[in-house]
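Progress note, sequence design subtask.
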């Protein structure tokens, strides 16, 4: 007869074996101690249900119980604990049948489930979907318990209540993925109608009429004249802030505005805020002894920002005022403060400022440094000797001096000089000049501590050789805690990226027998390696799954690399079609060798709209008149509008319609963009169509209809190739040139062009480069095989380089060369394909598109088939850190063809335009977060002269009046100005 015992445990408690014997024939339980079966052989081990989170073979390796081994009760408890440690089980019971020849064990399990996708539906924003999901506090990949559901519902109710939904109905629907042990949770919300505000109840001593307070809240529409607005958390907080702002403007800085409660009226679905307000005394902050405008005082004294008064904030304001005047050259500024009550309702805080004399930091000298150059140290300092005009008094304060001394100390410490001493001496009346000071910084470097020996323990090949190759703290190198910390980060990142998620790094340092040497011992514990069990993706509604899977860098069986996980997240975001990419490990605390990697995606809105308003001005106007072929000062408003359809057909593609309207250009373009073409992050494909009506070249108006396809291939971080096919038809109108030239240059033409572009960008900052190189090479061929009505080749080359002279001065240069070559003898290239140049980004000695050959009758520009321009710039600081200056020299021109490129300085006659025009000038740059705003003023010693008519276009085109029009000699203005955003190149 067989006897059966049973053992049960749950994941929430520590398992304690409880043994019971079952006699099936009699259908009754009999208590039998498990220890009674000690010493019997184990004849079999099985699992119920048969489908387990792991294979039976893997589970058996986890258990201390083995088939054929001797059964011990203590091993049974250990087996249960081993299974629980995986994190995959919510409940485990063990059933055993004892026979004469041994014991058969059956592990009866209940799987644990882990949180997958969480959705909250049915709520009109606000709150948005992200806030709703966050409110549930259900974290992706974490174990799920039934108690989590009610807690999530209560948290959602609180969030909805704060946003005016006081009667929501919330139903929870769960979907279990048995195979992957994932539970997806959907909250379906019937939010009802959002409550509206009603007149608040004001308590306390507001020192203001209630009507004014209500108006400040803006909880009523149209300046408080219409109905009440709906309740939202942001609107409620904004209303309270508006009330506080009123008291702040009245200097009632001690005013207290607190929301006591929100009284909800279910009958009217309205909310009455109960607000306690105590106006308090008026706080007046004054500055005496030095002029300090009120706006600057409010900026320097944090009492205004914190809306409270305490001694710490008063002292912080005192320090800020002192540093403000010290930065203006009053290095000895002393600031004190006092407080008194002028009346029961007025409290006065007075800052007394003793600026002393204006000083000048005439000299900053650093001595004692041999390991680092003075220039290296100076680059890390805030102190700056006086230089005109940027820092007329220098930059000095006691706080800055203390920071600089610490910066020097940290620099030496990080390079092994553990006993470095940095001191300073300040000398007044330097060189017998009153109010001139000098700062002398003395560095006593001391000995440099080097690493004598390094031992690395805990590694195996091939990890050992690689880890040693990335260490900085190797024998012969300086010892510092900074280097050790860097080594720790590098080592741990290496192991984290190879699936060793529990890797640890310890070290100890011992003095060496040699002087100024240390011995280092690194102890590394990689821990168990983790692998990817599978990658689970949720949240795809429109997007094709293969679009996401093709961008995954983690695959089943791969080491669990955190770097690849983060890089996959970045690649998905770069598609531009996901509003949120959430990634996590399922069962993160579980002790298992392979884990599921979860990605939960929220698709972004499919449509986006952009609107922009701007303007341009300069020598761009003049209208259709013969009087000003070189342009006159003009102004044009500019409006842009665009709409994009994201994730078209679920493929991650984008369709964009972009338009632009101004006095000089009307443009509409439709593009179809395929990012990461074929799943390759280095490829993108773009199809485009364009309609453009432009008047930016004063000679004619052009209407361009164009279709193109372009493949972009990123070869490396700096290098990109572009392959392009373009088909366009251009027609000209409003011609201001000799009609006899129309058949030759300005007939409508169809161009089919294949092109190849190479782009190399090694600039440190594309908006304002200080170092690096930027090069573009564009090759094009207009071919009859592409239905082109003209045949020519095009080569365009641009190269710019940037060289930092020191921390603040930059020398920049740019070369621009272009060449159109007709392939049929006697054939002219259409004027629409000519090079037009001149202006803010090419040659600042010309107005926009005014360089090169001109019509000999009217003087209007015709463009050319070659261009050569060179620009030199010296960029330097002017005043402070944001205002800079530029000295520039632009040279070059647009030429009729490559054979006529000339470096001549002078124009031979009024028909000669193939010479080099020069322009020197000065520019101002003001630094902004989106790039520098610039103004350039140029002077050209040799601008082109030409002959033109005076009169209207109608008189010129009329044969009866044309000969009567006066012809006068004109020229490009010697002085030019340009205003734009960003550097010239």
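Output:
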């Amino acid at each position: 007869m067989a006897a059966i015992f049973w053992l049960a445990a749950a994941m929430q408690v520590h398992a304690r074996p409880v043994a019971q014997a079952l006699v099936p024939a009699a259908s009754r339980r009999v208590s039998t101690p498990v220890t009674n079966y000690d010493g019997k052989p184990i004849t079999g081990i099985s699992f119920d249900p048969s489908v387990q989170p792991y294979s039976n073979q893997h589970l058996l390796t986890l258990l201390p119980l083995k088939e054929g081994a001797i059964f011990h009760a203590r091993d049974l408890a250990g087996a249960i604990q081993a299974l629980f440690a995986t994190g995959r089980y919510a409940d485990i019971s063990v059933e055993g049948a004892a026979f004469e020849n041994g014991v058969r064990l059956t592990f009866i399990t209940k799987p644990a489930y882990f949180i997958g996708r969480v959705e909250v539906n049915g709520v009109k924003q606000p709150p948005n979907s992200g806030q709703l999901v966050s409110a549930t506090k259900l974290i992706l990949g974490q174990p799920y318990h039934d108690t989590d559901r009610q807690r999530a519902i209560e948290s959602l109710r609180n969030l909805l209540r704060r946003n005016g939904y006081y009667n929501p109905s919330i139903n929870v629907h769960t979907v279990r993925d048995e195979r992957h042990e994932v539970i997806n949770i959907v909250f379906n919300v019937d939010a009802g109608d959002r409550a509206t505000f009603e007149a608040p109840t004001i308590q306390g001593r507001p020192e203001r009429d209630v009507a004014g307070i209500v108006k400040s809240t803006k909880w009523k529409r149209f300046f408080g004249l219409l109905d009440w607005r709906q309740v939202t958390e942001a609107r409620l907080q904004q209303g309270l802030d508006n009330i506080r702002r009123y008291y702040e403007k009245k200097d009632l800085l001690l005013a207290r505005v607190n929301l006591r409660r929100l009284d909800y009226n279910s009958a009217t679905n309205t909310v009455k805020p109960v607000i306690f307000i105590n106006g308090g005394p008026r706080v007046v902050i004054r500055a005496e002894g030095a002029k300090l405008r009120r706006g600057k005082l409010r900026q320097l004294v944090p009492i205004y920002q914190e809306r409270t008064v305490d001694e710490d904030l008063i002292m912080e304001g005192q320090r800020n005022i002192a540093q403000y005047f010290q930065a203006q050259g009053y290095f000895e500024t002393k600031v004190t403060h006092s407080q008194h009550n002028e009346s029961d309702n007025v409290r006065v805080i007075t800052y007394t400022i003793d600026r002393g004399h204006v000083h000048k930091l005439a000299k900053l000298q650093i001595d004692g440094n041999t390991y680092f150059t003075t220039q290296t140290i100076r680059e890390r300092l805030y102190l700056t000797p006086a230089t005109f005009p940027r820092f007329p008094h220098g930059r000095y304060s006691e706080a800055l001096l203390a920071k600089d001394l610490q910066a020097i100390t940290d620099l030496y410490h990080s390079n092994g000089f553990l006993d470095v001493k940095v001191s300073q001496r300040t000398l007044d009346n330097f060189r017998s000049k009153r109010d001139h000071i000098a700062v002398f910084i003395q560095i006593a470097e001391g000995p440099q501590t080097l690493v004598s020996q390094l031992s690395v323990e805990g590694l195996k090949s091939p990890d050992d050789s690689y880890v040693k190759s990335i260490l900085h703290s190797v024998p012969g190198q300086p010892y510092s805690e900074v280097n050790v910390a860097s080594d720790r980060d590098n080592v741990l990142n290496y192991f984290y990226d190879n699936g060793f998620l529990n890797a640890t790094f310890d070290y100890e340092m011992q003095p060496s027998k040699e002087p100024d040497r240390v011995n280092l011992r690194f102890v590394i514990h990689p821990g168990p390696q983790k692998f990817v069990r599978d990658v689970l993706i949720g949240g795809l509604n429109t997007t094709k799954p293969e679009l996401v899977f093709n961008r995954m860098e983690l695959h089943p069986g791969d080491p669990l690399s955190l770097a690849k996980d983060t890089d996959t997240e970045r690649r998905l975001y770069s598609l531009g079609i996901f509003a949120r990419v959430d990634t996590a490990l399922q069962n993160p605390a579980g002790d298992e060798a392979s884990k599921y990697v979860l990605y939960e995606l929220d698709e972004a809105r499919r449509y986006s709209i952009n609107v922009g308003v701007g303007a341009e001005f300069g020598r761009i106007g003049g209208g259709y008149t013969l009087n000003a072929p070189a342009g006159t000062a003009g102004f044009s408003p500019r409006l842009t509008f665009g709409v994009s359809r994201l994730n078209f057909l679920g493929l991650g593609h984008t369709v964009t319609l972009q338009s632009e309207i101004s006095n000089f250009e009307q443009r509409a373009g439709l593009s179809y963009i395929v990012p990461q073409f074929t799943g390759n992050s280095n490829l993108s494909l773009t199809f485009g169509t364009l309609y453009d009506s432009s008047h930016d070249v004063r000679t004619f108006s052009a209407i361009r209809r164009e279709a193109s396809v372009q493949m972009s291939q990123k070869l490396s971080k700096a290098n990109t190739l572009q392959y392009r096919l373009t088909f366009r038809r251009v027609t000209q109108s409003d011609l201001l040139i000799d009609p006899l030239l129309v058949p030759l240059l300005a007939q409508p033409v169809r161009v089919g062009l294949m092109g190849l572009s190479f782009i190399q960008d090694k600039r440190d900052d594309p908006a304002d480069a200080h170092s690096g190189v930027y090069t573009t090479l564009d090759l094009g061929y207009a071919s009859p095989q592409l239905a082109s009505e003209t045949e020519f080749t095009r080569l365009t080359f641009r190269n710019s380089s940037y060289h930092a002279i020191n921390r603040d001065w930059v020398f920049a240069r740019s070369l621009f060369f272009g060449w159109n070559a007709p392939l049929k003898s006697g054939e002219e290239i259409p004027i629409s394909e000519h090079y037009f140049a001149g202006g803010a980004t090419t040659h600042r000695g010309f107005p926009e598109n005014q360089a090169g050959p001109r019509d000999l009758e009217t003087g209007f520009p015709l463009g050319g088939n070659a261009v050569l321009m060179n620009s030199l710039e010296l960029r330097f600081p002017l005043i402070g850190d944001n205002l800079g200056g530029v000295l520039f020299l632009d040279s070059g021109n647009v030429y009729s063809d490559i054979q006529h490129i000339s470096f001549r300085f002078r124009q031979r006659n009024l028909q000669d335009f193939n010479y080099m025009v020069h322009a020197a000038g000065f520019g101002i740059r003001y630094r902004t977060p989106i790039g520098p705003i610039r103004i350039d003023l140029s002077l050209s010693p040799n601008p082109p002269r030409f002959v033109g008519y005076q009169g209207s276009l109608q008189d010129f085109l009329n044969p009866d009046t044309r000969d009567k029009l006066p012809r006068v000699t004109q020229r490009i203005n010697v002085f030019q100005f340009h205003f734009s955003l960003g550097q010239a190149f």
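The first helix runs from residue 56 to 62. Work on this subtask will continue into the next period as scheduled.
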